[in-house]
UniProtKB/TrEMBL annotation:
Keyword Ribosomal protein applies: yes
Protein keywords: Ribonucleoprotein, Ribosomal protein
Homology family: Belongs to the bacterial ribosomal protein bTHX family.
Keyword Lipoprotein: no
Species whose genome carries this gene: Lacibacter luteus
Superkingdom of this protein's organism: Bacteria
Sequence intervals crossing the membrane: none
Protein known as: 30S ribosomal protein THX
Biased composition (Low complexity): 16-30
Length: 39
């Protein structure tokens, strides 16, 4: 467990990815989804 493990928050930070253990900014994602829905 650690930097190389994508299942941990530290691993996600190291890899630069998002997911369950390190979600992207929720408010921004919801706003973008809502904007796409209205178009």
């Amino acid at each position: 467990m650690g930097r190389g493990d994508k299942k941990t928050a530290k691993g996600k930070r190291f890899k630069g990815s998002f997911g369950k253990s390190r979600p992207a900014k929720v408010a921004v994602v919801k706003k973008a989804a809502k904007k796409a829905e209205t178009k």
